[in-house]
Specification:
By secondary structure, the protein is mainly alpha-helical. The chain has 9 helices and no strands. Helix 1 packs across helix 2, helix 3 packs parallel to helix 7 and helix 7 crosses helix 8. The radius of gyration is 18 Å and the shape is globular. This is TetR/AcrR family transcriptional regulator. Keywords: DNA-binding, Transcription, Transcription regulation. InterPro entries: DNA-bd_HTH_TetR-type_CS, Homeodomain-like_sf, HTH_TetR, Tet_transcr_reg_TetR-rel_C_sf. Pfam families: TetR_N.
């Protein structure tokens, strides 16, 4: 008996989630299709029943990861007062928990460097997702696009730098200084 459409969609979702986490943790090129499928609890032979290529999966994983980030940060904002929504998002984004959990965090600091050298198709999807995040920030801040871009670039760069240094005190200091500056 063939699988239902719902079953196939659930399996596809599991694959995208596995890829999304693996890419953010290790990078796109470092993660193989068999690793992704194993992370989803599946054999690698079924991959092409769901995707034409790893590139197609990368694009979907980027969308999924940004949806997760905006949803998570949207929940943080909803719990704050109107005056504190933006700062609550900044606090959450520039936290040690976000820094230390790249597999669950925002795709921008995790993958931007690698995506800059990816195909135009992947870069187009990434661009759409960055625009989505900028709209989210702009909506919270009630600011013009330029201020939202500067705010987002500071947040992304702060996490990237905090993850890159091997001195825990300096990493914490980077996060603290950027949170204070953005407040």
């Amino acid at each position: 008996m063939p699988y239902t459409k719902k079953h196939k969609m659930n399996i596809r979702h599991k694959i995208v989630q596995s890829a999304s986490q693996a890419f953010r943790a290790s990078g796109i090129k470092a993660v193989s299709v068999p690793q992704i499928m194993s992370g989803a609890g599946l054999t690698h032979g079924g991959f092409y029943a769901h995707f034409d290529s790893k590139e197609q999966l990368v694009a979907e994983a980027c969308k999924s990861a940004m949806e997760d980030t905006v949803t998570r940060l949207g929940s943080v904002a909803e719990q704050a007062s109107d005056e504190e929504k933006l700062y609550a998002v900044i606090e959450s984004y520039l936290s040690a928990a976000h820094r230390d959990s790249s597999e669950q965090g925002c795709i921008m600091p995790a993958l931007a460097g690698e995506i800059a050298r990816s195909s135009e198709d992947i870069r187009e999807v990434f661009t759409e997702e960055v625009s989505r995040f900028l709209s989210f920030v702009s909506g919270l801040a009630g600011q013009d696009e330029d201020k939202s871009i500067a705010l987002t670039a500071t947040m992304v760069g702060s996490i990237l730098l905090a993850r890159s240094v091997n001195d825990p005190e300096l990493s914490d200091k980077i996060l603290r200084a950027c949170r204070a500056d953005l407040k």
